[in-house]
Design a protein that fits this description.
This is GTPase HflX. The chain is α/β, with parallel strands linked by helices. The protein is built from 13 helices and 15 strands. α10 links the parallel β8 and β9. It is elongated. It starts with 10 loop residues before the first strand and ends with a strand.
Length: 433
């Protein structure tokens, strides 16, 4: 090993700006949680009141001097801004502080880089990092921006900066090509599920709302779940059998956050398409979070950005174990359909209500009933078996097949009309509403 990484977190000074436009204002508590998730050892949290950001430093020159003295006195390795910095502001602040400076986007990218486990996840993070780095590449190579002169060093070759930019462009093309292949593979898998008529359900929500804990509780999976921001990065899909509905595919997706960097939305489009192509979105909400309404609005904003705003949504208020005198329940709309489910993924209370609500919302066009087919309808009987719609079969006294079936109503109507049959083949039926 040529070097060893520091065993503990990097000593960081956090800088939060107050007085910004309400739409651009960030949450200071969330900022500190992001820093902890990245592994930073926070030695100071500085709140700066700034109504008119400056072009050179974002903050005033007096505050820059104050922060420089603090960085030197505390021997900080890093200064993190809870705001987006331009490349020139980042360079100017690094010269002033004589240490690394990153902004909110760089912090989130670092967390994503630590969490990526699959090959696809690593490619997506690398794409976002390279696109973010491309505007900041000059920072590390200012001493090589011009070709060196002098005896033996003159020549028409490209500068080191130009070489790095060219290599960066090549790598970006490679990653985008690989991710396009991943996207086509995911789309092929989705087409296969649609042909098999298996509904897909995606868990979406603000980061640390409890999506992975809920996913594990429902599917008995072993997805990594922790009380930290962006614990889940790579999507996980599991097949789940629901009573009165049959199989569904449940997907656990990456959590959203306030002002999710656009580069991440673009890089993770292949993953986020799992949500935008779902039959139902389960929006997991932290019921114990004081800022939950703001978090709900942020999730809806990101869903709109990925083209999933028109999909049916079931709200799930999680973490009832942290609330008092609130029982698991299903809240319904005026049409009687489930709108909200209150539950606790940690202790399992209310999980059966979630499965019931999903079955009701996805089963609105599902026929569940019993059919009586005389012996001369053997071909129709075979078609029901070929579709995997038969749950059980027995024969009555005259030898007719009595089938308990579950299949989409449109498929049932197609098969019955093709055979020219009448409704009396139904002994009993009910359609999930």
């Amino acid at each position: 090993m040529f070097f060893e990484r520091h065993g503990g977190g990097e000593r960081a000074v956090l800088v939060h700006l107050e007085g910004q436009d309400p739409e651009a204002r960030e949450d200071p508590q969330e900022f500190q949680e992001l820093a902890v998730s990245a592994g930073a050892d926070t030695i100071a949290f500085i709140s700066v009141s700034r109504h008119q950001p400056t072009a050179k430093y974002l903050i005033g020159s007096g505050k820059v001097e104050e922060l420089r003295d603090l960085v030197k006195a505390e021997e900080a390795d890093l200064v993190i801004f809870n705001h987006t910095l331009t490349p020139s502001q980042e360079r100017n602040l690094e010269r002033a502080f004589e240490c690394r400076v990153i902004d909110r986007t760089g912090l989130i990218l670092d967390i994503f880089a630590q969490r990526a486990r699959t090959h696809e996840g690593k490619l997506q993070v690398e794409l976002a990092q390279l696109e973010h780095m491309s505007t900041r590449l000059v920072r590390g190579w200012t001493h090589l921006e011009r070709q060196k002169g002098g005896i033996g060093l003159r020549g028409p070759g490209e500068t080191q900066l130009e070489t790095d930019r060219r290599l960066l462009r090549v790598r970006l093309r490679q990653i985008k090509g690989r991710l396009e292949k991943v996207r086509s593979q995911r789309e092929q898998a989705r087409r296969g599920r649609r042909r098999a008529d298996i509904p897909s359900v995606s868990l979406v929500g603000y980061t640390n709302a409890g999506k992975s804990t809920l996913f594990n509780a429902v599917t008995q999976a072993q997805v990594y779940a922790a009380d930290q921001l962006f614990a889940t990065l790579d999507p996980t899909l599991r097949r789940l059998e629901l009573a009165d509905l049959g199989p569904i595919v449940l997907a656990d997706t990456v959590g959203f956050i306030r002002h999710l960097p656009h580069k991440l939305v673009e890089a993770f489009r292949a993953t986020l398409e799992e949500s935008s192509n779902s039959d139902l979105l389960v929006h997991v909400i932290d019921a114990h979070e004081p800022e939950r309404q703001a978090q709900i609005e942020q999730v809806l904003a990101v869903l709109g950005e990925i083209g999933a705003e028109g999909l049916p949504i079931l709200e799930v208020y999680n973490k009832l174990d942290l609330l008092q005198s609130v029982e698991p329940q299903i809240q319904r709309g005026e049409d009687g359909k489930p709108q909200r489910v209150w539950l606790s993924a940690r202790d399992g209370r209310g999980l059966e209500l979630l499965e019931q609500a999903i079955a009701e919302l996805l089963g609105h066009d599902l026929f569940v009933g019993t059919l009586c087919l005389p012996q001369h309808l053997g071909r129709l009987r075979a078609q029901f078996f070929a579709l995997g719609a038969v749950q059980s079969e027995h024969h009555d006294a005259i030898g007719a097949s009595v089938l308990a079936v579950r299949l989409p109503r449109v498929e049932l109507n197609r098969l019955v009309s093709r055979e020219g049959m009448e409704p009396e083949i139904f002994i009993e039926q009910h359609t999930l509403q």
